[in-house]
Fold each of these.
Amino acid sequence: MNSLKRLVRAPSNIALIKYMGKTDAGANLPENSSLSMTLDALSTWVAFERTPSAKGSSGGSSQILLLPELPAGIAGIASGVLRLPHLSAAGRAKVIRHVERVKTAASEILPAFGLRAHTEFDLVLRSANTFPEASGIASSASSFAAITLATALACAADTEAFERAWSTQVELKRAFARVSRQGSGSSCRSFEGPWVLWEGEGAHAVEATLPELSHFVILISEETKTVSSSEAHLRVKTSPLWSGRPERVERRLEKLRAALSQGDLATIARLSWTEAWEMHSLFHTSEEPFSYWKAGTIDALHWFAPMILTQPIPPIVTLDAGPNIHVIVPRTEADAWRANLHGRFGVSALLEDRPGSGAQVVSS
Ligand code: DP6
């Protein structure tokens, strides 16, 4: 097997209907379906180098090295500032286990798409994000999606054939999205775009009739969160508000899907607002209550509240498991919103993005 270097990237996604609570923590199976918008520039880049296994064909597991380094060659390609992920020993072990999981899955998935698989190789993965980690921008979504794609590509004996299949056969993406879900649930929504529904084991794109959109993140805090989202998934079930949540969310999701296909931005905005408040209320009312909100989060929520409730077409405003606020608006209004948000929250507090199409191979 020849040595191979490639670069991939996967965007984060922002859920309007949230994945919160699992029926199976080992497999990351959700209590309810969720629906998100795939982002574009806010992403994880992974450069990988595959070399023949130092163990040769004698068996045993091959080496995987994970480096929080700037992948070579991307500075000129990636827009915005690149940040290196801070990986704890446990976080690193989780990613390495995931790489092994993808290799095992690839040996079954690739042949099903007419692609030959190799899994005896050593792999060096270098990754960087275009956004601050652990602050409510789903870094685990983009990083697990990018690591999944990088490993899947490394397992392909003919990488050009893999790249062709990746861009033409959506079921190949969906098969690896299911594997990615086992590493981190929300990552399964980062393989397609712009609107993705995750039900049960897998995710797929859904139709929407909407104008071009812009996405802003108001960065309230870049501090690392003290309660991981995996922990939050457990604690929410101890809230008295948990009762009826899965059924309630499925009904909200049906309304949201109808609003997406009708291009009904006002309904999308109001449902998203309610859903974000409900998820954070679960955090605030669990047996060991906790909050991701900072003073600035509450201030911003107060600022948005009258708009959401009274404007004919309000902005779509939501939060993930973090203090930062996501705002989605028609692109025709982006200039006015940028000025508005700069004026209210400061120039350095804003990240900007747009809907995207999911994990992709960047170079060949
Ligand atoms: C609040 O996907 O990070 O962002 O499966 O344990 O890795 P694990 O959880 P994760 O949960 C993210 C939850 C959320 C809401 C969402 O994205 O739907």
Amino acid sequence: MLTNEEISVSIESSCDDTSICIFKGINLMEMKTISSIQLQQLYGGVVPEIASREHLKNIHVIFDELITKHQIDPLSISNIFCTNEPGLPGSLHIGILFARTLAFLTKAKLYFINHLHAHIFSAFINDYESIKFPFQCLVASGGNTILYLVNSFKDIQILNETVDDAVGEVYDKVARALGWTYPGGPCIDNNYDPQKADMVFLRNKPTSSAPFSFSGIKTAVLNHINQLKMKSLEIDEKKISSSFQKNIIELLIDKIKYYSKLHETNSIVLGGGVSANSLLRQMVSELDNNFKYPELKYTGDNAAMIGFLGILLKKEGVL
Ligand code: KG4
């Protein structure tokens, strides 16, 4: 049960974003996020130690700012929802320790929320009435690529997951080889030109039932770039990046189609950083009129999705 007046605080610190969100009843009041991405850009990827130190520096500042702005007495907080898995251990520890201390001092109830399950429901933030089970959901980010069959809040089955790299990770590595900034996904996506996407990096397409694997396409693209560099040949960045994007998104679409035939569902849902991708959204929309995707600000790691799932689970009596 959850009353309309209850104040809830949610915390996300699984990777490089420190994010806190405040809710009143089921309504989201405000989310504030500080990302360490600019520091991470210096290294071309997330350095766990830097991420942890930045969480430690920022987490109480964000909390203070939000409760001051909304004139919330900490003792009036009823629920704290905090992500505890999966993620970088050092980063998660900062959020968990902050949540435990806050719960101890305020006597609020503390609930831990699975970060990936929160991504699954992020497309429904501010629109929970449109959740219709069962649905198929692809969560694709820098650390995970998983297809789920979501039968209910409790019954969430993994249909397929990557055995090696995650899609976002491959985007980041290809962008780095082209000399583009981290994170590579938005850069490659913004430069996408369908007229130039005519290269084929995978000679043999995997069978539809095989587990996701993206190390093959990654190696093929990186080898191609390296060979051009070694031979001092011109590198057509747009041609390579556009072809890479078309090839990798087609791998995702292939699997979504395969499982759509095996399981009848109400819709296809996207979540995670890669769900911001314009080609992925376009191709899924061609498969399914009812398809759902998160607002851009909820595609990456964010506390709104942690609190939203926590509140839904409480409302439905699952927590
Ligand atoms: O969920 P997320 O913010 O963080 C974690 O991985 O934990 O996802 C970040 C990933 C990065 O690899 C980034 O390159 C990718 O999502 N990404 C994209 C796009 N926007 C972000 N990949 C493809 N197309 C995009 N538009």
Amino acid sequence: MRNLANNLQPLAINAATIKQWSLAQLLDGCARRGVTAVTPWRHHVQELGAAKVRRLFADTGVRISGYCRGGFLTNPDAQAAHDENVEALKEAADVGATSMAIVAGGVASDTKDLSVARQRVTERLNKLFEQAKTYKVPLLIEPLHPMYAGDRSCVNTLSQALDMCDAIDPERSKYLGVICDVYHCWWDPYLKAQIYRAGKDRLQAFHVCDWLVPTKDMLNDRGMMGDGVIDIRGIRHWVDEIGFDGIIEVEIFSERLTALPGEDVLALCIERYQTVV
Ligand code: ZN
């Protein structure tokens, strides 16, 4: 039985979870509470500059767990998509992020054929993979729930993401992997098998939140762990079984949480991480 008591070491907070706080406030709050890792977004680096972001992390002793985000590779303009991602990778390297999340991009605007969109993602990730090795920042494909296939991601299952990894990186280098986010993957009948297939070299991040019933907004109504219907402990058990040693990131886009004091949201993240994750 794993020890759930007070070990906050794997816990990371995605900055979007407490967006009522500035990055400085979030890092300060996490440092005070013993949370050791935070995932920032590109807008933080674009607003503050990489040097300032790096200094904020260094001053509080909080680690940069990931970087949100690159992708949107189904853009008909291949060069624009590539350049934007190289820029994001450079930022991730500049701030010392240990990985960058990839949101593939939805159905392309120039064709309704989803297989074309997926093929584009594979081809363009293949090219970007070389840059990931250069910048030493792993790309982590995050499959999104199929409700986002229209606008955000044509990669909707761990199986599809792992097929891409196998095609691009058969040597299983650490520079290409996947994120299992329970919000996106909980419904998948093949989830357990795909977590085992991924192994801990491919599965480099585990994201947690909950699926509320009813969900009132496709993007901004994700639930705090324990408030919805996902068997988070069950999925965590599979993830533990493969020897997963990456970060467990609380990533919740929620207008309800944004309306609360940041301090309360952070306290709730910690409490629920300890009791239901
Ligand atoms: Zn996620």
